[in-house]
Amino acid sequence: MSKQELVVIGQDAACCPVLSAAPLDEDQAAELAKVFKALGDPVRLRLMSMIASRGEGGEVCVCELTPAFDLSQPTISHHLKLLRQAGLIDCERRGTWVYYWVLPGVLDRLAAFLNTPRAAGAGA
User: Fold this and answer.
1) Tell me: the pLDDT tens digits for 55-80?
2) Which of 55, 62, 69, 96 is the most buried (most CB within 10 A)?
3) pTM across the whole model
């Protein structure tokens, strides 16, 4: 795998403000759209879930991901590449296998962006 520099969204509060705090500018919307587009595919969403379920600092080998799908290995690799390009995960080759992990803070920043504080006394 080639090492490419990934631009990780949400490194600062300016990138991913709380949705209800202020409207997104064009750049913020474009960056977040890449992330949501990557997560908008059921296979990629499952892959992300499988990787994220390992917990912070956890990683998973592609050899554990591929058997969970009725897809070819190149197709799984393509989906993983799109998740990497969206700045959600990263990977490292170790011998024959590639290991994937969620980039630190990514899920927290997405959750914070989507979180809408409830007004006092508001119902569920």
Assistant:
1) 777 899 999 999 999 999 999 999 99
2) 62
3) 0.75
